[in-house]
Amino acid sequence: MEYIKSKPLNLVHVQCCICESDDTEPVGTGKDFEYNSSADTFLAMRCNTCGLVYLNPRPDISGFERIYPANYHAFDFSEKEFGFVYKIRSGLEAKRLLNCCNGLAPDARILDVGCGDGFHLRLLRQYGNKSWKLEGIDFDKRAVEMAKKSGLIVHRGSVESIELPQNAYDLAFMIQTIEHLEKPDEVLRSIRKLLKPGGKLVIVTDSTDAFDFRFFKRSYWGGYHFPRHWSLFNQNSLTMLAKKTGFEVASLGTQYSPVNWVYTIHNWLVAKKGPAWLINQFTLKSAFSLSVFTVLDIILQKFRKGALLRAILRKPS
Ligand SMILES: [Zn+2]
Q1: Each residue of 9-47: pLDDT tens digit?
Q2: CA 133–ligand 1 middle distance (angstroms)
Q3: Distance between alpha carbon 257 and the CA centroid of its chain, in Å?
Q4: Would you tell me the crossing angle of helices 79-100 and 119-127 to the nearest 10 degrees?
Q5: Gap from CA of 296 to ligand 1 centroid (Å)
Q6: Statement: the pTM of the whole predicted model exceeds 0.70
């Protein structure tokens, strides 16, 4: 795979979004191993105060269309494209989503922030209470178009800029969204305003407490997704962000996922110029490698070291 040798991305320097300082040390460096969106090398820094790992410098908004190319997986995670993997993942995700919806009233209002092509909203519509009111928000035009095609109510823009009713939602999801955000603290504050008192926000994101981070953080760790993941949390930094933005932590733990493992091997093979047929065994379409790493991460999850963090935050009553 050849990197696109066009001009480098515009990069901006940022501070830790939790501590608003730049007392950091470098933890990893790497390239866009998945989409070859630029020839840049990126640096992941760790905040010495809260432990947040963040991309610094990172692309500015002008680079969005390049770093999220048309074949970016969140724009079209469909059964047609992903077949067997879609079926298995849908079943698992539906169960996880419904677990978070326990006790919701029939007229509950649910918001998916960073809904992508509407994958999670479609599962809630299919398997959840038919009278729930489902809405999504996404920044990306292509993702919003895909979601609207399946008849979902989706707002295009950022949660800070769209006018939505305050104190109105019972539950909000941010599933693998927070790591992509420019200002996670501002987004959480905005969501808190939209939630009813006692309303919950479920955050799922890559965990830097995970085993694979410890071993592969110097470059190939799948959770970096250079340069698309801007903030990577552990239990400590996510708790600090929740407190900073006025939430209570109702629960905080991990859940298993094979995805970062698969990307880690993929990235390593790309960097080592492995053969294409072998690299292609480590993608989101590779049922075999996804199965193997699912088993491994289920074992790690038993020790509370699953690949993903899952936090349930509550707006104080
Ligand atoms: Zn910090």
Answers
A1: 999 999 999 999 999 999 999 999 888 888 999 999 999
A2: 36
A3: 12
A4: 60
A5: 31
A6: yes
